[in-house]
Design brief:
mainly alpha, single chain
């Protein structure tokens, strides 16, 4: 009985850990699942609609999302330039983590990879936006944007090396989604959650297929998107404090990425 309780408690805290990878830009949910040891099993179970083994894990993830969202939203309200500088450093530091999945073939077809990288940077720079819609208004436009953002972020989150919250930063919706969670705005959150479910069950398989078939070019284009989309977070005024916070964000993501890569943790989910 005690062993069973410990098992469920461990799953719950794994969910809380996974929720931090969702909230923090630069940390890939797919990478965390790989480290926890059940990446392929999660994909297979999602495809077969087997959700029961993940109920406790899901409760931990949901609990963690509200806790981390509250924490980050308070920081953003109190220290916006410093927090966005920190997030910019975390976002840009995630770019090398994406390319690490192709380290062995880094110099093969280098010209084509550079072209895809530059295309990604240009796309991210042109489409990075700061506030595309007033999401708290619950207007049809904002709900459609939320649904699409949830689908894209959740689907890309399952690809190792790509951060779902970094995608929200690219779309200019990171702060807005955190605010929706803190305010418990049910209608927008339900629309966003529906988009997330649709992305996980539908788009994830398509993106994973593209990622596996065109892995090198997909990774370089995604890295370019990450670098170019930093425009939405770039501070209006650069000073030593802003630079230090950006460096702290980059260092934290880099260290966590190395720790995740070397972690021996294995999952007990069956």
């Amino acid at each position: 009985m005690v062993g069973g309780a410990q098992k469920y408690l461990k799953r719950f805290f794994h969910g809380v850990l996974f929720s931090l990878s969702i909230i923090l830009p630069g940390i890939s949910g797919g990478t965390v699942l790989l480290v926890l040891g059940f990446y392929e099993k999660v994909l297979d179970d999602l495809a077969a609609f087997r959700f029961r083994p993940y109920i406790t894990f899901g409760f931990g993830t949901l609990t963690g999302l509200f806790l981390w969202a509250f924490f980050f939203q308070k920081l953003i309200k109190s220290y916006p330039p410093l927090v966005f500088s920190f997030l910019l450093g975390a976002l840009w530091a995630s770019a090398p983590l994406v390319l690490k999945h192709n380290a062995q073939t880094l110099y093969d077809l280098l010209f084509k990879k550079i072209v895809f990288l530059l295309c990604g940077i240009l796309t991210g720079w042109l489409f990075a936006i700061e506030n595309p819609a007033e999401l708290l208004s619950e207007s049809p436009q904002s709900l459609i944007i939320l649904f699409g953002a949830g689908a894209i972020a959740s689907a890309t989150m399952l690809i190792p090396g790509i951060s779902g919250s970094a995608v929200l930063l690219m779309l200019g919706l990171y702060d807005d989604v955190l605010q929706l969670i803190n305010l418990a705005k049910l209608v927008p959150l339900l629309v966003f959650a529906t988009g997330c479910i649709g992305g996980i069950l539908g788009l994830a398989r398509v993106l994973l297929h593209l990622c596996r078939r065109y892995q090198m070019f997909f990774s370089f284009f995604t890295t370019g998107l990450i670098l170019g989309s930093g425009r939405a977070l770039f501070p209006a005024e650069i000073n030593l404090t802003v630079v230090l916070f950006a460096v702290c964000g980059a260092v934290m993501v880099s260290l966590w990425g190395k720790k995740l890569k070397s972690s021996p943790i294995k999952s007990e989910i069956r």
